[in-house]
Task: structure prediction
Amino acid sequence: MLVGVSQVVAGEVYEGAEKCKTCHSAAAKGEPYKVWAKQKHRQAYASLASDEAKKIGKEKGIDDPQKSEKCLKCHETAFGVPAAEKGKKFDETLGVQCETCHGAGGKHVAARLKEEDEEEGEPKLKDISAKGEITHLPGPDVCEKCHNKESPTYKPFDYVKFVKEIAHIDPRRKHAADWIDKLPEEVKKK
Ligand code: HEC
Ligand code: HEC
Ligand code: HEC
Ligand code: HEC
Result:
């Protein structure tokens, strides 16, 4: 269910968005990978090479924002996480990826791969929220780790408005169209 908020799950290893793509790009599932790939989070690392980024960097005495922890900590996934906790194909240049919001996917990927092997035919929609594999609905606490005044380009953060911009809802789940507006106040303000 799309209630609860980020009970962020310790998923062991960060696999990277290309791994998630293998199971999360079908149109029938709301194609989260394709939605993400077209949005700004995907560009977060690349945009540290823009003229604007260089200008911001210069004012702070940073030569190359793509190499500075002062910028990377919010512009890439799993910044500062040891290599042993990242999958072999994990690619930092893909910017703010799935696991920034959903938590490390190692346990989830392993469990889903195993189940696929045991199943015949097209896999059916499963409710895995209760299994504690991965965070289903990342709440404002997750976003505000980066969407805060430490960002040199800070735009006032509004959870409901911003989530709508990045929405990648699974149509099979039949959420009410206005589910986000109906989240309890304590969730929206958390
Ligand atoms: C790891 C840091 C990080 C986290 C966590 C994060 N974001 Fe972002 N977000 C960014 C960065 C960086 C950009 C700008 C990327 C760029 O333009 O290069 C961005 C851009 C956006 C934009 C586009 C804003 C615009 O100016 O067009 C939206 C909408 C957004 N984020 C929503 C969210 C929501 C909702 C959450 C939580 C569910 C979230 N973000 C979590 C770093 C983060
Ligand atoms: C081997 C296939 C597979 C891979 C790889 C995979 N997933 Fe999933 N994922 C599933 C299945 C199956 C579900 C259950 C919903 C459904 O049937 O689509 C699911 C559900 C989810 C959910 C909803 C959780 C809930 O509580 O309902 C999220 C969020 C998610 N995946 C994120 C990811 C992320 C992030 C990655 C990459 C690190 C990833 N998945 C990789 C198969 C996969
Ligand atoms: C605390 C997290 C955080 C840090 C640190 C951070 N950024 Fe960002 N950055 C964001 C977020 C979030 C956005 C999306 C817009 C906003 O709210 O600032 C963003 C957007 C941007 C953009 C795109 C602006 C646009 O119009 O889309 C540029 C360029 C940028 N940042 C450069 C930098 C540089 C250079 C540094 C290092 C000096 C840096 N950022 C450090 C979080 C951060
Ligand atoms: C910036 C944060 C953020 C990023 C990055 C992100 N998600 Fe999500 N994801 C959310 C939020 C918030 C929700 C709940 C609202 C929604 O469905 O859009 C969600 C919901 C989901 C769901 C459940 C959909 C449903 O209707 O129940 C799946 C599956 C999922 N994401 C997979 C992914 C995958 C795969 C990627 C990367 C390709 C990804 N997400 C990237 C924040 C994020």
